[in-house]
Design brief:
Order of helices and strands of chain B: HHEEHHHHHHHHHHHH
CATH class of the largest domain in chain B: Mainly Alpha
Radius of gyration of chain A: 23 Å
Radius of gyration of chain B: 24 Å
Shape of chain B: globular
Strand content of chain A: under 5%
Helix content of chain A: over 70%
Strand content of chain B: under 5%
Number of domains of chain B: 2
Number of helices of chain A: 12
Distance between the termini of chain A: 37 Å
Oligomer: heterodimer
Number of domains of chain A: 1
Number of strands of chain B: 2
Distance between the termini of chain B: 42 Å
Strand order of the largest sheet of chain A: 1-2
Chain lengths: 273, 279
C-alpha cells in the first residue's frame, strides 16, 4: 500500500497542473457561457447566433472540407508508400512528404500568405510558365487559403500515422489479391484502407480538433468576415472584453469537436459489438 | 537483380511511368518547397515589389535590424528562449517522477492518468487560454514570464510525461535490482542507474517540449501580450504591419530548430522507446 501511495504522490504535481491550468478554465468557460451579468441565462447564445451563425457554418465547412482532403491525401501517400513498386519513387515520396509536419502554424500562415497572394510566388510561377495571364491571377487568401494551409500542415502527420499502420498489415492478403489480378487502386480501397480505418479516424479527429483551435492561420490568412470561430473569440475578448459571448463561442466549438469524437466512439463500439 | 524483380527491365515501357511520377512529385515539391523558398527570398530581399517575380536587390539589412542590440526582435528572441528553457525544466521536474511512477509502480487508474495528460491536446484550447488569462489577471500572473511558462507547461506536459513513461519502462528492471542487491539505496539506484539509462528518451521529450513552447502562439497571445513579447507574437505583429522582411526572418528563426529536430529525431527516439509511447 505505501508503494501505491508513493506512486500517487509522484504523479500528483503533474496532474495538479492539468487540473488547475486546463480543467478548471474549461469548466469556467462552460459556466461563463451561460452567465449574463451575474445571472444565468441564454443571452450569450442568442447574441452569438445573431452575430456569428455565418461564421459557425463557415468554420464547420472549412474544417470538414480540410479533414476530407487530408484524409484523401494521406491515404494516397500511405498507399503509394505501401503498394508502390518502384523503390526509387517510393524513397523520393518518403523523403518529400514529411517536411511541413514540424513547421509551426504561425509560420505556415506567414509563408502561405506570401506564396498564395495575388502577386505571390505561385501566381508568378504560373504566369512565367505561360499557364496563366496576369489578368487572370487571383489571390487565394480567403477560405481557400485557410483550407490549403490546413491541408499543407496536417497531411504529413496523418499520412505518417496511416503509412505506419499500413506497413504493419499482413502482406499475405495483399499478395493473394494481387495474384488474383486486382489492380493497385482496388487493393488500396478494398483491402488496405479498411484495415487502417481506425488509425485514419484517430488521425483525422486529432487534426479536426487541432484545426478547430488554431488562431494564427485565420488571423494571418483571412481575418475578414466570414472568418473562423477562433478569430471571433479573440476579437470578442480583445475589442469588447466580452467574455460571455467568447465563452459561448468556445462552448460551441467544443461541442462541434466533441460531436466528431462521439461519432468515432459510436462507430468503434459498434465494431466491437 | 533478376529481370522479374525489376519492373524497368520487365517492361521497356515502364520507364514511361516516370512522366506521371515526375509531374506529381514535381507539383508536390513545388507546393512544399515553393513557400519555404519564398520565405528565404523575403529574408534577403532589400527591394521587391509588383510586378517583379524576384527581388530587385538583395542584402542583409533586415538581419542587421533584427539582431541590433536594442531592437525589439532581440527582446522577443531572449523571451522566447528563456520561456522555452524554463518550460523544459518545469516539465521535466514534473514529468520525471510522474513517468517513473507510471512505468514502475503499481498505480490505480493508470490508463486514466495517462489519458488525463492528453486532455489539453484533445480539446479546442482557445477558450481555455482566454479563461486562464482571466485567472492569471486576478493573481497577477498575466503578462509575466512565469505565467507564460505555466501555460506552456500545461500544453507540453503530454509529451514530457508520455515519453518519460516510455523511456523508464524500456529500461530493464533487472539492472535496478542488481544495484539494489549490492547495497545501493533506492535514491542512489535511481540517480546512478535508472536516470542515465533513460537520458536519451528524456532528452527527446525535452526537445519536444522546447519546440512546443517555442512555436506556441495562442497561449502567449492571451497570457503574455503585450507585456511579454515572444517570437510568434513578433511574427504576427510585423506581418500584420506589412514588414515582410522582419516577419520572414522571425519565421525562419522559428522554423530552423523544428526542421533540424525532424531530421535527427530518430537518433534520440529509439524504436524500443517509441513503441512504448502511450502504453
Amino acid at each position: 500500500m505505501p508503494k501505491r501511495l508513493l506512486g500517487l504522490l509522484l504523479v500528483l504535481p503533474a496532474l495538479a497542473v492539468i487540473a488547475f491550468l486546463f480543467i478548471l478554465p474549461l469548466i469556467m468557460s462552460a459556466v461563463g457561457a451561460f452567465q449574463v451579468e451575474e445571472a444565468f441565462g441564454w443571452g450569450n447564445f442568442i447574441k452569438t447566433f445573431d452575430l456569428y451563425t455565418k461564421d459557425i457554418i463557415f468554420t464547420v465547412v472549412i474544417v470538414s472540407l480540410s479533414t476530407v482532403l487530408i484524409g484523401i491525401a494521406s491515404i494516397a501517400i500511405g498507399g503509394y508508400l505501401t503498394l508502390g513498386e518502384h523503390p526509387v519513387a517510393v524513397a523520393i515520396l518518403r523523403w518529400l512528404y514529411r517536411w511541413p509536419m514540424f513547421i509551426p502554424f504561425i509560420v505556415v500562415g506567414q509563408i502561405l500568405r506570401t506564396f498564395l497572394s495575388k502577386n505571390g510566388m505561385m501566381n508568378n510561377t504560373f504566369i512565367n510558365l505561360g499557364l496563366l495571364t496576369p489578368l487572370d491571377a487571383v489571390s487565394f487568401l480567403d477560405w481557400r487559403g485557410i483550407v490549403i494551409a490546413f491541408v499543407w500542415k496536417q497531411t504529413p502527420f496523418v499520412a505518417l500515422l496511416v503509412a505506419g499502420a499500413m506497413a504493419s498489415i499482413n502482406r499475405d492478403t495483399i499478395e493473394a489479391a494481387r495474384n488474383l489480378g486486382a489492380s493497385r487502386l482496388r487493393l488500396l480501397v478494398e483491402i488496405v484502407v479498411p484495415q487502417v480505418a481506425m488509425t485514419l479516424t484517430v488521425g483525422l479527429i486529432l487534426s479536426f480538433v487541432t484545426m478547430m483551435s488554431v488562431l494564427s492561420v485565420p488571423l494571418m490568412i483571412n481575418a475578414q468576415s466570414p472568418t473562423m470561430l477562433t478569430a471571433d473569440i479573440a476579437f470578442r475578448v480583445n475589442s469588447y472584453g466580452d467574455y460571455g459571448v467568447a465563452n459561448a463561442l468556445g462552448l460551441i466549438s467544443l461541442v462541434l469537436a466533441g460531436s466528431v469524437a462521439w461519432i468515432y466512439l459510436r462507430a468503434s463500439l459498434k465494431e466491437r459489438a | 537483380m533478376t529481370a522479374a524483380r525489376n519492373p524497368a527491365r520487365r517492361n521497356p515501357l515502364a520507364a514511361l511511368w516516370w512522366v506521371p511520377r515526375g509531374i506529381i512529385f514535381g507539383l508536390m515539391a513545388f507546393f512544399i518547397f515553393g513557400p519555404l523558398f519564398n520565405l528565404v527570398l523575403w529574408t534577403v530581399a532589400e527591394k521587391w515589389y509588383f510586378p517583379y517575380s524576384l527581388p530587385l536587390e538583395y542584402g542583409f539589412s533586415s538581419w542587421a535590424k533584427v539582431f541590433a542590440p536594442r531592437g525589439g526582435a532581440m527582446q522577443s528572441l531572449t523571451n522566447s528562449l528563456v520561456v522555452a528553457l524554463l518550460t523544459v525544466v518545469v516539465s521535466l521536474v514534473l514529468a520525471i517522477p510522474a513517468g517513473y511512477a507510471l512505468a514502475r509502480l503499481k498505480l490505480p487508474f493508470r490508463g486514466l492518468i495517462l489519458l488525463a495528460f492528453l486532455i489539453p491536446q484533445a480539446f479546442p484550447n482557445l477558450t481555455v487560454y482566454v479563461n486562464i488569462a482571466r485567472i492569471f489577471y486576478e493573481i497577477r500572473l498575466n503578462g509575466t514570464i512565469p505565467g507564460v511558462v505555466l501555460v506552456h507547461v500545461s500544453h507540453g506536459l503530454v509529451y514530457a510525461v508520455w515519453i518519460a513513461t516510455a523511456a523508464f519502462s524500456a529500461i530493464d528492471a533487472e539492472l535496478e535490482l542488481a544495484a539494489r542487491n549490492i547495497g545501493a539505496g533506492a535514491m542512489r539506484t535511481f540517480m546512478d542507474v535508472t536516470l542515465p539509462l533513460a537520458a536519451p528518451g528524456l532528452m527527446a521529450s525535452a526537445v519536444f517540449v522546447f519546440l512546443e513552447s517555442l512555436d506556441e502562439f495562442t497561449g502567449s497571445y492571451f497570457v503574455g501580450a503585450p507585456d511579454v513579447n515572444m517570437l510568434p507574437l513578433l511574427l504576427y505583429t510585423t506581418a500584420a504591419g506589412g514588414n515582410y522582411q522582419i516577419a520572414s526572418i522571425t519565421a525562419l528563426l522559428l522554423l530552423v530548430p523544428s526542421l533540424v529536430f525532424m531530421l535527427i529525431v530518430e537518433r534520440f527516439l529509439k524504436a524500443d522507446v517509441l513503441s512504448r509511447v502511450g502504453h
